[in-house]
Amino acid sequence: MFETLILILDSTVRLSTPLLLACLAGLYSERSGVVDIGLEGKMLGAAFGAGAVAYVTANAWLGLLAGIGVSVALGLLHGFASISNRGNQIVSGVAINFLAAGLTALLGQTWFRQGGRTPALPEGGRFRDIAWPYAEQLREIPVIGPLYSELLSGHNILVYAGFLAVPLTWWVLFRTRFGLRLRAVGENPAAVDTAGISVAWLRYRAVIACGILCGFAGAYLSIAQGAGFGVNMTAGKGFIALAALIFAKWRPANAMFACLLFGFLDAVSIRMQGQEVPGIGEIPVQFFQALPYILTVILLAGFIGKAVPPKAAGIPYLKERS
Amino acid sequence: MSETPAIELRGINKSFGPVHANKNIDLVVKKGSIHGIVGENGAGKSTLMSILYGFYHADDGDILVNGKKVTIADSKAAIGMGIGMVHQHFMLVDNFTVLENVVLGAEDSAMLAGGLDRARIELKRLEEEYELRVDPDALIQDLPVGLQQRVEILKALYRSAEVLILDEPTGVLTPPEADHLFKILEVLKKEGKTILLITHKLREIMAATDSVSVMRRGEMVATRETQNTSMEELAELMVGRSVLLRVDKKPAVPAEPVMEVENLCVTDQRGVQVVKDVSFSVRAGEIVGIAGVSGNGQSELLETLSGIRRATQGRLKINGETIDLGTSTLDAADMRARSMGHVPEDRHRMGLINSFSEYENSILGYHRDPAYSSGLLMNIAAIKENAVAEIGKYDIRPPNPMLKTASFSGGNQQKIVLAREIERDPEVLLVGQPTRGVDIGAIEFIHSRLVELRDAGKGILLVSVELDEIRALADRILVMFDGRIVGERGANADEGELGLLMAGVEDNAKMSVEGDVR
Fold first, then answer.
1. Domains and CATH numbers, chain A
2. pTM of the full predicted structure?
3. How far apart are CA A92 and CA A84, in angstroms?
4. Smallest CA–CA separation between B476 and chain A, in Å?
5. Cβ contacts (< 8 Å) between B117 and chain A: which residues?
6. Which Gene3D superfamilies would you find in this protein's record (chain B) (predicted)?
7. A319 CB within 8 Å of a chain B CB
8. For B152, which residue in chain A has the nearest alpha carbon?
9. How many structural domains comprise chain B?
């Protein structure tokens, strides 16, 4: 029983990581007032970029860099449409999702001829799990042993990066000048403008930060958790991350808990597959997959506290013509 | 040789597309003075100040700060030259603390902690020097507007502003808050700061400034020493013709009551009782004014009577019908059907849909009227015809019923609402803040239309926070304080006495008058 729990928690961590990275990415963007429904597309683009480059170079780090590059480029596209040209942020985000879904499959097929997938990664093209010191020796100690050896130890570096990004994001938002301005521009861009700070440049930086984190999330899928890119491999994770962001009320620590919760539901659903629950029978996987959305809707309806988005989110900034 | 002026503008021009907002503006502002700039809405005051603050760029012309010619590329440059601005709509982040708002854009370094600590000390010093007290850790959203404005002033002072521009600073303030603001400005002046006060309220100019410049249609038409001018002269300069600041009206000839309110109580959404046992009547052919500082239950009273808000108890007699407001489910349309017109306090929120065209707005609330609607389709031709007629009668400019109401000035928007309500010929008209954000010329027009309606034998209930307006129009004045009617006075009531009533000082005068009669 305890072992089962550890295993579920272990896969919770693995499944939460891409959600967490994407969720924090969205947090930077939305805190600056740029709604980003294109997390999904950026993750997918990054996953493809990482998978392709890691295969060709047999270097995971170059793969990660490529993933970040693709994701930031898509982010800048979103920024160009919604910040510079004051376009509708939802439309721009949706466009990026379509663009990424189509382009990755098309380029994948053209380059590798494996139905849109990238070939299996060679040695060195993938981030390996890192065993912590004495993980093997401590495994036998009751309770603490498995916790240490299974749960803490034995993940790849992107998992640790994802969880370290939580306190880092908190620190950036609430302890630095950039964070203060970022939060301000998402609430009242006119206040930032009249204080002599460029609204556009601030938002661009937020969009770039978002792109970098989405790059991590995408690379995680194709070259850390998986061993190559598969068509549409994000499978809605970007949207779950967006739901988690709302669930977390746009706060970093909450984001971590929300992503862990959603990851946990995912882990449980995998575990429950084909298993009979006494008295209920087999619970369909779809039920668990729908839960994050259902929980978010319940939250939005005002049953669990209140989720107030940044006031200026979604509104292009235009200097008022008095 | 006189001292170098703090600010000098020479030949400033600025156009927005076809609109020439500033034409060849010259302006000299003496150091250490309070200089007023008056003009009607749209005269170009805010544009000029935004140019000075680097928010817009002038098409041509020179700006001199302390005698030196400068180019102000952006707000940052303006701040660097010691120019600070308190905007009409505060530039504050609502869910930030006072301290965070003050340091935003003026943080010392990439890390916040040091800057926040310095700001805390500096705020303490400013607080002592200028008597600008405010809790640095309070959230902006929890502060009343008066204090929010103080934070704006502190922001400017924290950036060591020597010249402070205030754009319509009293628009959102209650009279006591406005008085307090002027005291603060006096202190700032004593400390050697230069203040530019932009307003359209002449009374404030006379009370607070040393000199005043008048703008009209993008031009600077005159500059006067305040002590050598008068409200009448300034009003004439602003409008370009002589205007009547007093309303010309005959004594009222009231007849039977057309509206009677008894024991009305209203509770707001927070569960607080905001209207407490209010009873009064309005007779045909009179204007009853409700005076009071904003937030004392007047808005709720008006909304309840017009059918927008529910009462907990009370009766309303109108048109011979008695309505139990405690149980009534009559909505705004039902009240209109009972011949009660309503000019709401906030025309943007309730009076108009600004993205609709003028002709559509001209029948809002009356759109079910068979004259305009067959039940399924609107009778666009009839609506437009009516709109054109109202535009002519109320001198609404530009005279184009197809234009969105967002493109009309405040005064003309208000005339659209007024025309819509008055032209349905109501027996009772409820009017809230009829001239808020309206220029002088339109105020004169609106006031005379209300008096005409009164003389036509209709009853008018007027709610206004502008005591001058109440005194000018009302035949009877009721004062509301804390949800109650605390006093009733005649048309020529003493201003000081009304002020005391509005501040909640007990009404003993009424009793003593009644005693004398006995």
1. 2-126+142-300 (1.10.3470)
2. 0.78
3. 12
4. 38
5. none
6. P-loop containing nucleotide triphosphate hydrolases (3.40.50.300)
7. yes
8. A191
9. 2
Rounded to an integer, the average pLDDT of B43-50 is 88
Is the pLDDT at A322 greater than 70, yes or no? no
Please report, as a single letter, which amino acid is at residue A288. Answer: F
In the predicted structure, residue B171 carries a pLDDT above the cut 80: no
Contact A187 B95 (CB under 8 A): yes
pLDDT digits (tens, 9 = 90+) for A223-260: 999 999 999 999 899 999 999 999 899 999 999 999 99
Position with higher pLDDT, B420 vs B201: B420
Using CB atoms, pick whichever of A177, A193, A311 lies closest to residue B107: A177
Q: Is the predicted pLDDT of residue A280 greater than 90, yes or no?
A: no
Do residues B367 and B324 both lie within one domain? yes
- Is residue B1 very low, low, confident or very high in pLDDT (cuts 50, 70, 90)? very low
The answer to whether residue B247 is domain-embedded is no
pLDDT of residue A305: 66
- Measured between beta carbons, which residues in chain A are less than 8 angstroms from residue B155? 195
State the burial class of residue B404 (Cβ atoms within 10 Å of its Cβ: 0-12, 13-18, 19+): middle
Distance of alpha carbon B515 from alpha carbon B498, whole angstroms = 20
Task: Report residue A64 as tokens.
Answer: 């990660």
Contact yes or no for A196 and B76 at CB 8 A: yes
Domain that includes residue B404, residue range: 257-517
**A176 and B96 in contact by Cβ < 8 A?**
no
> Which tokens belong to B416?
């659209």
Q: Between B112-130 and B175-190, two packed helices, what is the crossing angle to 10 degrees?
A: 90
**Alpha carbon B50 to its chain's center:** 21
B105 and A176 within 8 Å at the Cβ level: the answer is no
Q: Which residues on chain A are in Cβ contact (under 8 Å) with B75? A: 193-196
pLDDT digits (tens, 9 = 90+) for B2-19: 688 999 999 999 988 777
Contact B75 A183 (CB under 8 A): no
DSSP state letter for B8: E
> For residue B392, what pLDDT band results from cuts at 50, 70 and 90?
very high
Say if residue B191 is in the same domain as residue B223.
Answer: yes
Same domain membership, residue B233 and residue B285: no
Length in residues, chain B: 518
CATH (domain of B234): 3.40.50.300
